[in-house]
């Protein structure tokens, strides 16, 4: 069935359609329409304009390409399964929620509370202009070439890999489990608090007080800029290229950098014998020690 070059403004305009191609249609108009394609099955949507609420709810099997979802198109995709999107624009709030098997490619997003409680997700070459609480409680995701600005991103996520991305976001990766980030830029304050099995490889990390209260944190060949009071109350294995501004009260592990500006180990909060902290060259700790291969190790305030 081909539905082409039409305008729909009524509620549930194409409710429950199956096996259809919807091409170059507008879901718009003066009426207060919503739920245009609710309960649809095995559909293709190409080059459409979505300006009405809740168009794709309880949909199973949809390929959506070249389609614009305006700011008025709130809560666009909820409770869906097996959805692919290519070359789309998502501007409405709460754009994707409680969906399973979602693929986004070459898509632009400006959506607060984007992609909550979803699983089996794949993103490639996606840009998020601005979002608060994106990717909340996401499980089983593969993300490549994501460029984003946001706040409180990736909270409570599990089993996520991110690569070749630029993430400008504060309070990212809180309470996550089994997350790996590779070859990426992460710019934001308070990174990774309360995480478990968070791994960063070949990443550039920027921002104050990163990686506090972490369990089994791992950094490999990362750089850290403006990172002070790092690793507080965390178990960590970190190999850092360049300088860490300061390290405070890690619980246990190994921290190695070219230089560490200050090491703050307060004996009422940490057992210094459980953490090995070393500088490859230069740098001083809180007690004025510096130079050599291991100038910062096990010095309590």
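^ structure tokens above, recovered residues below v
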């Amino acid at each position: 069935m081909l539905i082409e070059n039409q305008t729909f403004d009524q509620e549930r305009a194409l409710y429950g359609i199956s096996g259809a191609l919807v091409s170059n249609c507008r879901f718009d108009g003066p009426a207060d329409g919503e739920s245009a394609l609710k309960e649809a099955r095995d559909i293709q949507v190409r080059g459409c304009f979505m300006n009405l609420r809740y168009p794709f709810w309880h949909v199973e099997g949809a390929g959506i390409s070249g389609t614009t979802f305006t700011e008025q198109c709130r809560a666009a995709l909820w409770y869906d399964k097996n959805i692919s999107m290519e070359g789309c624009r998502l501007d409405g709030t709460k754009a994707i929620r409680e969906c399973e098997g979602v693929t986004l490619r070459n898509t632009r997003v400006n959506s607060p509370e984007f992609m909550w409680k979803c699983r089996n997700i794949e993103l490639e070459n996606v840009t998020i202009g601005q979002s608060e609480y994106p990717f909340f409680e996401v499980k089983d995701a593969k993300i490549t070439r994501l460029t984003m600005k946001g706040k409180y991103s990736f909270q409570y996520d599990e089993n996520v890999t991110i690569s070749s991305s630029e993430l400008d976001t504060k309070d990212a990766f809180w309470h996550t489990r089994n997350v790996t980030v590779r070859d990426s830029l992460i710019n934001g304050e308070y990174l990774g608090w309360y995480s478990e099995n968070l791994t960063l490889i070949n990443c550039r990390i920027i921002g104050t007080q990163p990686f506090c209260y972490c369990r089994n944190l791992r950094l490999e060949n990362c750089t850290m800029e403006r990172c002070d009071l790092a690793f507080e109350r965390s178990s960590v294995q970190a190999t850092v290229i360049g300088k860490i501004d300061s390290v405070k009260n890690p619980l246990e592990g190994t921290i190695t950098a070219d230089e560490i500006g200050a090491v703050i180990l307060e004996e009422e909060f940490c057992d210094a014998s459980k953490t090995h902290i070393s500088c490859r060259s230069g740098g001083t700790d809180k007690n004025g020690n510096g130079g050599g291969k291991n100038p910062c190790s096990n010095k309590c305030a």
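The CA atoms of residues 239 and 256 lie 5 Å apart.
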